[in-house]
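Figure caption, in words: inputs first, then the predicted bound structure.
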Amino acid sequence: EPSLAFLIVVFNVAFKVKATCCVICRFNVDIYSFHINSTVTSRYAVTVITSRVANRLNESKEVHFQVKIPKNAFISKFRMTIEGKTYDGVVKEKEEAQQQYSQAVSRGESAGMVSSVGRTLEEFKTSVTVAAFSKVTFELTYEELLQRRLGKYQLLINAQPMQPVADFKIDVYVRESPGISLLEVKGGLNTNELANAVTTTRSGTEAWVNFYPTREQQTKCDVCGENGLNGDLIIMYDVDRRNPSGELQASDGYFVHYFAPTDIPRIPKNVVFVIDRSGSMSGRKIQQTREALLKILGDLAEDDYFGLITFDDRIEVWNPELLQATERNLKTAKDFVRQIKDNGYTNINAAVLKGVEMINKHPREGSASILILLTDGAPNRGESDPTRIQANVKEAIGGKFPLYCLGFGFDVNFDFLNKMALENHGRGRRIYEDSDADLQLQGFYEEVAVPLLTGVQLNYTGSSNVTQTRFSHYYNGSEIVVAGQITDNSLETFQAEVIAVSKNSRVTYQDSVFMKDIAGVLPQHEHFTQRLWAYLTVKQLLEKEMTLNGEEKEAARKEILDLSLKYEFVTPLTSMVVTKPEGEETQVAHKPKEGENRKRMPQRPAWGLSCSSLSPCLSVIGVRFLISSLDQPKPVCYDLPAASKLRLLTDPSSDFSMNGELSTKGFNQIALHYKTDYSLMLNTSHILYHDGLNDVMFLWGQEPSNVSLILRIEEVDVTMGTVRVVLFRHKKDGEMFLWPAVQQQPNHVGIQGIFGKNNLEYEELPGSVIKIKDQDVKATWSTAADYRRSSAPVLGCWLVPYKSVLQGELSDFTVSQL
Ligand SMILES: *[C@@H]1O[C@H](CO)[C@@H](O)[C@H](O)[C@H]1NC(C)=O
Ligand SMILES: *[C@@H]1O[C@H](CO)[C@@H](O)[C@H](O)[C@H]1NC(C)=O
Ligand SMILES: *[C@@H]1O[C@H](CO)[C@@H](O)[C@H](O)[C@H]1NC(C)=O
Ligand SMILES: *[C@@H]1O[C@H](CO)[C@@H](O)[C@H](O)[C@H]1NC(C)=O
Ligand SMILES: *[C@@H]1O[C@H](CO)[C@@H](O)[C@H](O)[C@H]1NC(C)=O
Ligand SMILES: *[C@@H]1O[C@H](CO)[C@@H](O)[C@H](O)[C@H]1NC(C)=O
Ligand SMILES: *[C@@H]1O[C@H](CO)[C@@H](O)[C@H](O)[C@H]1NC(C)=O
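Bound structure (2-acetamido-2-deoxy-beta-D-glucopyranose present):
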């Protein structure tokens, strides 16, 4: 039965009894498993949250499912499984769904909702009634294209299961064909005690981040309490950019082009800041604005020209013309900024038109002009009709440069600001009223601080339904993404061309991909390019729709609706509806308004073991081990002879040890010991647990009778004290073997065993030499299967003798008895 993919065992592990008992008393509804699985393929992230809940009461109970997802994402799937029966959400037109929803409400049905929370997240909530002693599985999928900001992509995962969970894990997998150049893990969940629950592996084009906190840690960390974890895990990365014309990928009749050249000089700016100083800015807001402006002025380059306008019902200029950012001019500008005082009403129309006039009066060859408006309120002096202000500004700018509108605080008419910015090649941005508002302002400025290209036009041969192809400015640290359909299949190559203006000249970039290569799609990536295209098309249409009227607006809305229904995206025009067990349809999600096929990149040559008379083949019959960490771009591997009994991990301070017996592929036996009384022995057929008094025996895959040992189909997840290990059963060439993946271990010098050496620091030197602990070691570029994952991917690695990695003799790592 497919829903049995996952089993949980409760047994009487004494060091957990207290926690388990409390949880059962406090939470009659027990979330016994909470998994987040995120797969990022070429910046397109698909995240699945799976929560498994048991009603431990002898009566039926309403069970809630509540999670937070990034605002930028579209929900694309929701599913509930109750007593083996699956209830799938269906995406419908919003109005249609809303009618059913109001009927449901009038019948007293509860219904799901998505609402905006904080700066970056939206909350998804729903509930279902679950019979006595029954279980429900909730599964929510959302998709998003990660945007590059300040040189990094950021995947944000929020975890707040609402109670401590025995089987909690977050698994992130990133695959980027040009190679991953940087990987960082941040966020509240990667701090202090929780940091040792994070493990990372990076290998050329792939990266894995896993977060496996124990139940105890979920109640004792900084960002958690009685109700378990509550915080974010943020995975930041960037990709290699060896090809200045970008990365062109195609599959399944669709293409995507990522364009972010780096090796070009910055273009000097003409920038005008239009700053609201009306009465409502008084207090902290005006103070933070002054601080941010002082910092921003300090960051201007000497060949930039700038202007400052402050306004309430009157307009005041620091200087009537733009002036160069010389030291002297910056000094008087800073004095002007320090004296900005709040006062009076808000005349946005006159202030923005003044800024446009100043830029228009200052044409300069080879420069990029930018107008930035900061306001916290609605126009209420001078021209105060938003539609007329928008028309005036659009006419004055005439498409010549972008206008960015920053809306400060909650009283702004953000729709008005966003629309005005979008009509002028810019965008609106909210500045949240908080202690870090000055940093938010600076952060926004940094994104537009370094223009590298203007007038960017991208063209693609034989294509249609292409997303936006004209961009007024391209800034350092960002990325232009274009996707479309390939219509002409008779072409030999699919070509991309980019024409733009750089500091000194017009530039052209070209790239192409062979159509015959496009045919060979990896099955798992078959639809990724198409979904990315649909996501980007809907996102851009939602922005464009805001600036349109009448029939054009209707046409855009229809296109958004059609695509959202086809690709099952929950957008502001659609809703997710699910038919619950009671037979009632309920709306579970709608979106709040607010504002590998690929081109075949030359792979790293598969050197493997190179045997020659000069360097004879290392023909040890051994088993290969991998070591990887966040700080090292490439893993290191080493071989150990088969048939040894090895010390895998010992922590004398918590009385934990794990030993294993190596056969030819992996381990045939692994033993874990905790304190004197507890042990877990595994071989490839049996799992034997001993708690001092009783022995409990399981078979792999068996459903046991009754939490600190979690049995999944080909894995056992064990927590003992401060160590959490997932033990996998693999099969290769018909032979079964075991392999442990230490998901968590304490960080202190007392740790011993071969898996205790998990933070290897090394340096790559020329000539395939790597330096480990002040020793130069000859290395061979090789490969190793990563048995720490169920899929056992094959990774490239620097093969070195085990002695240099383990810093000891084999005898230091062997035991006489498991
Ligand atoms: C586990 O199951 C056994 C037998 O089925 C039972 O005696 C024991 O009390 C159970 N333990 C827990 C913690 O429920
Ligand atoms: C995560 O999702 C990917 C893609 O759907 C799947 O291949 C993989 O098995 C999942 N991993 C886990 C641990 O569930
Ligand atoms: C549920 O259990 C309680 C106490 O064990 C008992 O009093 C009550 O009658 C039970 N309810 C049902 C519906 O069985
Ligand atoms: C663009 O940013 C990169 C770092 O992300 C930096 O190395 C480079 O110098 C910047 N280019 C310019 C022209 O400032
Ligand atoms: C690029 O596309 C635009 C719009 O389709 C077209 O006007 C222009 O001539 C094209 N330029 C080149 C160089 O193909
Ligand atoms: C794509 O473009 C073609 C015309 O080239 C059009 O017939 C088709 O409807 C478009 N498809 C979508 C999904 O917009
Ligand atoms: C695993 O251990 C059990 C109990 O000691 C034993 O009966 C069984 O034969 C072992 N299986 C293998 C494959 O060694």
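The first helix runs from residue 14 to 26.
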